[in-house]
């Protein structure tokens, strides 16, 4: 299943993404961790040192390779140049699977050894000023979106994306690409206002949005979140000494994580699992087409000089039974 952590900067997206990834690793299930945040910190949170994190290949720099591979022999996509971040797969496209080896993972994914086992990590790469703002052709998160739209993930396979709640993800449709979205919020007015904005965008698309309270210190914090977000509050994390020790460069063994925080992680997994059961593959495909047509019209057609609506394969539904072209 596809999961995302979003929220205000500093709320704890990277911390909770990394804890969730570590938790899943102890269960022995396949995990793909993706850093799609403007501030690239997931590698470090998974224990990589500065040099290791800096050596991670940037997906944003490998877009031509990613596009060429995914396009496969799809006759509706005539070149990698006309493939934009929202171009949907169709007959002939190559699809990705969480556990396989493929040229995209060879180029972009690296294994990270954790207490429980290894996970794969992919990163968009550092953002520059030119990347930010409007629906940008070279948008780095576009590489992530393309991969998500070509990824067939099964039950018990987890994709965990550390992401911002920025305008780019709303323009492109990235925010609709997940089985469940965990909105990390501290018990503050700012934390909750990001939730409201997200909820507003999510409303029309049936996005499964759950609030994960973080740095929650007592009853008053809990009451505040309950009053502000109601039933959308899934679970809360307290201050973690384990995280603190990790930040001091003395990573403890993961099995020494606080019990309450471990229970909270387990709840995240349960919520993700049940969201996966409710996945609607046709709606998922319909939404990628919707955002593609929107992007084609607003900038894509003009930028590529092609009619990008013609890339849509009307009979295609992204699902596990689809067989990829070889
Ligand atoms: N539950 C927690 N316990 C202790 N420290 C935390 C916790 N959650 C986040 N932090 C700390 O707060 C800071 C911001 O968290 P981070 O995950 O980097 O936020 P974001 O990715 O949303 O910007 C980091 O120093 C992190 O270690
Ligand atoms: Mg972060």
Automatic annotation (TrEMBL):
Record flagged with keyword Nucleotide-binding: yes
Gene3D superfamilies attached to this UniProt entry: P-loop containing nucleotide triphosphate hydrolases
Residue intervals of the CobQ/CobB/MinD/ParA nucleotide binding domain: 7-97
Annotated Pfam families: CbiA (PF01656)
A GO molecular-function descriptor: ATP binding
PANTHER family: ATP-BINDING PROTEIN, SEPTUM SITE-DETERMINING PROTEIN MIND HOMOLOG, CHLOROPLASTIC-RELATED
Protein name, entry field: ATP-binding protein
Lineage: Bacteria, Bacillati, Actinomycetota, Actinomycetes, Kitasatosporales
């Amino acid at each position: 299943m596809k999961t995302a952590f979003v929220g205000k900067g500093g709320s704890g997206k990277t911390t909770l993404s990394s804890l969730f990834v570590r938790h899943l690793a102890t269960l022995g299930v396949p995990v793909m961790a993706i850093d799609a945040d403007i501030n690239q910190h997931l590698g470090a949170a998974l224990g990589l040192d500065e040099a290791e994190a800096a050596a991670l290949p940037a997906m944003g720099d490998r877009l031509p390779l990613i596009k060429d591979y995914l396009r496969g022999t799809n006759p509706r996509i005539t070149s990698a140049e006309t493939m934009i971040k929202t171009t949907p797969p169709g007959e002939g496209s190559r699809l990705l699977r969480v556990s396989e080896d493929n040229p995209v993972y060879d180029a972009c994914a690296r294994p990270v050894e954790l207490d429980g086992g290894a996970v794969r990590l992919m990163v968009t790469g550092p953002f520059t000023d030119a990347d930010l703002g409007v629906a940008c052709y070279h948008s780095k998160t576009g590489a992530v979106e393309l991969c998500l739209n070509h990824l067939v993930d099964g039950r018990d396979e987890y994709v965990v994306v550390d992401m911002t709640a920025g305008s780019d993800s709303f323009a492109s449709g990235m925010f609709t690409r997940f089985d469940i979205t965990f909105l990390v919020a501290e018990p503050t007015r700012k934390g909750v206002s990001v939730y409201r904005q997200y909820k507003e965008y999510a409303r029309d698309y049936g996005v499964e949005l759950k609030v994960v309270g973080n740095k929650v210190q007592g009853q008053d914090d809990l009451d505040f979140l309950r009053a502000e977000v109601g039933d959308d509050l899934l679970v809360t994390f307290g201050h973690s000494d384990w995280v603190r020790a990790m930040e001091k460069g003395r990573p403890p063994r993961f099995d020494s994580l606080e019990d309450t925080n471990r229970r909270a992680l387990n709840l995240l997994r349960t919520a993700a699992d049940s969201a996966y059961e409710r996945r609607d593959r046709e709606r998922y495909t319909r939404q990628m087409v919707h955002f593609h047509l929107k992007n084609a019209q607003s900038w894509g057609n003009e930028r590529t000089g092609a009619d990008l609506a013609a890339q849509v394969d009307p009979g295609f539904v992204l699902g596990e039974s689809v067989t990829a072209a070889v």
